[in-house]
Amino acid sequence: MRIAMETDLNKIRKLSKEKEDENWEFRSFLKGCDISEEKIDSIVHELYQKVSSEIDCRTCANCCKEVQPVLDQEDIERFVKCSGISVAQFKDRYLVKDEGPEKFVFNKKPCPFLKDNLCSHYDFRPKDCRSYPHIHKRGFIFRLVNVIENSSICPIVFNVYESLKGEIKYYDDS
Ligand code: SF4
């Protein structure tokens, strides 16, 4: 498995725009092909290991600038432990309501807790931040809308999705 990596965020943004139609066609291909969901997960997880080992998220931090993580009550209670303010003050100063009961997002981008490209509340960060970019999870083919959205933001997602096209011979078969 050879991976030609792209890590320049400007190029990734541009390429993602250019590849928009192709990315949606590849989504349809993945949904309709006869490769099992488990097999696709296994290929994606292997690609994720390779790609993420070559990308330093601390020098990128683009997710903290472009994505608004969702916080639930548990996330909020953990977060305020290191902030010295109450839950009510925290919600008032930093959060807005998201869809779904008791779900919130930060009220601005980049995240107000990103300092010098690092998370200033790293040990207390929300579950959504811990899990991003979610490529290690099972059920890749059920999250393809988010994968395509995140491929223009996160170099890991971009390179995994691009490499996956080659791995399952999309171009040869189309
Ligand atoms: S809480 Fe930390 S990890 Fe999450 S978006 Fe903000 S800066 Fe990034």
Would you report the number of β strands?
Answer: 5
Give the percentage of residues in beta strands: 5-15%
Into which percent range does the helicity of residues fall? 40-55%
Unreliable spans: none
Record the strand order, biggest sheet: 1-3-2
Largest sheet data? 3 strands, antiparallel
Name the overall outline: elongated
| Whole-number tally of structural domains | 2
Instruction: Tell me the span between the first and last alpha carbons.
Output: 21 Å
Provide mean pLDDT, rounded. Answer: 93
Structural class: mainly alpha
Radius of gyration from CA coordinates:
18 Å
Total number of helices: 11
Order of helices and strands: HHHHHEHHEEEEHHHH
Bound molecules: iron/sulfur cluster
Description:
The protein is mostly helical and 174 residues long. It is built from 11 helices and 5 strands, in the order H-H-H-H-H-E-H-H-E-E-E-E-H-H-H-H. The chain folds into 2 domains: 34-67 and 132-174, no CATH class; 68-115, no CATH class. It has helices at residues 9-18, 20-32, 37-52, 57-60, 62-66, 73-80, 87-94, 127-131, 144-151, 155-167, 170-173, and strands at 70-71, 95-97, 104-106, 114-115, 118-119. The strands form 2 sheets. It has a 3-stranded antiparallel β-sheet. Strands 4-5 form a two-stranded antiparallel ribbon. A hairpin with a 2-residue loop joins strand 4 (114-115) and strand 5. The longest helix has 16 residues, at 37-52. The structure holds iron/sulfur cluster.
